[in-house]
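S.,

Sequence below, as promised.
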Amino acid sequence: MTEMAFGTVPVRAGEPILPKWWRTIDKWALGAVMMLFGLGMLLGLAASVPLAERNGLEPFYYVKRQAVFGTLALVVMFAMSMLDPKQIRRIGVIGFAGAFIAVMLLPVLGTDFGKGAVRWYSFGFASIQPSEFLKPGFVIISAWFMAAAHEVGGPKGRLYSFLLMAIIVVALALQPDFGQASLVLFAWSVMYFISGAPIALLTGIGAMTVAGGFFAYNFSEHFARRINGFLSTEVDPRTQIGYATNAIQEGGFFGVGVGQGSVKWSLPDAHTDFIIAVAAEEYGLILVLCIIALYATVVIRSLLRLMRERDPFTRLAGAGLACAFGVQAIINMGVAVRLLPAKGMTLPFVSYGGSSVIASGIAVGMLLALTRTRPQGQISDILARRGR
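The prediction came back faster than expected:
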């Protein structure tokens, strides 16, 4: 109907797929993601060698595995970015269904690898963390529900998305995985706000979240231990937070030099949750600021492009994916500098981990697809042509 009223944006007839993809993709965001992956490989060369030696493996064992995982993630990302919003929605819904079932079966078939949280499926040669794949699928299906609620006679999409979010958050908290649970809640809140939710309702949800945190603190030893460690005025230098904090301080502005850092020999998770500490120690604040700028580029560029979109599903899904991507990076780096309690969350495209990097590839591929310029995709273009 809008096209009938305002006219259409010309389409280049018969344009090949790759030239069309290149013309419409957000090249700045794509370049930032590629640079993040490159930095992840560079930091992996420094951070994962000590772990390989401790485990009796060849020095670059984890680097080679990350190269394989990263290559697969990039292939998936490029493939996803070539799809249209309807295809993204279909894949997201199917992927969500599979990941949701996998998360629900974790208490029966999952393993904790001795870390006190049942989050993984072990296959001997590799492991999978299904919650990583659940996030992009959840964003897509929630955006679909919320967008459908705007249609005349549409379903109660907001209510359905809320119930789905509550089930997922409870399931993740029981693992326990409060980091992923908070990320799911945040992404849903962003989409709910954009879809027109009243501030009073969001305030109520925030109050419920605080109450849930209070309950978890009193009845979950895992949660209470992390909160107590975060609130403590003194940091035990023998803990991961202590090693990371000291490494960041030692790095200063320009770092101690490539390969000269010591934190990677002390931190068991230096190549995953605390890789930013390795970057800060060896390369200094300069590299950390560059990494932050790259994440900001992806998020801000995506949100700016989505502001010009008039399809509700595209706006909601894109905003959810972009904000989840950025907040995950903020949480990881916030934990390393002790601004947030430890949550066991990776740094997208930079930390080691097959599930993390491949799921990040899926999410960013979807985001790049949703932020591509398309015919009739921007109201400003149509109104400008109408005014001529």
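The CA atoms of residues 8 and 225 lie 58 Å apart.

Coffee later?
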